[in-house]
Specification:
164 residues, 5-stranded parallel sheet, 7 helices, disordered N terminus
Length: 164
């Protein structure tokens, strides 16, 4: 990680330079889990060569439906899984977030969801929140390309804070 005016994060422990293996997270709200499972099953062959992370229940359900996929299950979203993914994003350890959200049901951990999406935006992590966008991402020629995350936080890091 190089920081200063430009923060460039390269996740090379799992993704050696010029390889195409990505770290991908799959998250789904309860009412969206069937769609997430169906979508993952439809694209299992393409996902198989990548490192897959998922929040608790979603990961268990996807793994049961797709035994050929190696899925690292994190904590359930409301129990800290969203924060675990946020930390991965902030450290440059997540390339794509497939987050199948339910826009019609209030979520008790809404602040965690907003924080996760905010970090994705800050660190240029690809995010798909519905099937249509997920299909665009997985069928993009960029899906198989190496990925470097860049974020410029110089203005924030060098700002003057009053009364300090």
């Amino acid at each position: 990680m190089l920081c200063g005016n430009l923060c460039i994060i390269r996740w090379e422990e799992n993704n050696k330079p010029n390889t195409m293996k990505k770290n991908i997270a799959i998250v789904a709200h309860d009412k969206m889990k069937p769609q997430a499972i169906s979508w993952t099953t439809e694209h299992a062959a393409k996902l198989q060569s990548h490192a897959i992370f998922a929040t608790g229940t979603t990961g268990k359900l996807i793994q049961a439906a797709n035994p050929s996929l190696a899925i690292t299950a994190l904590k359930s979203g409301p129990l800290g899984g969203d924060q675990q993914l946020g930390a991965m994003i902030a450290e440059g350890k997540l390339d794509i977030l497939f987050f199948f959200t339910d826009p019609m049901t209030p979520q008790p951990h809404d602040v965690d969801i907003k924080a996760l999406l905010r970090l994705s935006t800050m660190y240029n992590c690809v995010v798909a929140c519905n099937i249509a966008t997920a299909d665009f991402v997985i069928h993009s020629p960029l899906f198989e390309q190496p990925q470097v995350h860049q974020a410029d936080f110089a203005d924030y890091a060098l700002r003057e804070v009053p009364n300090t």
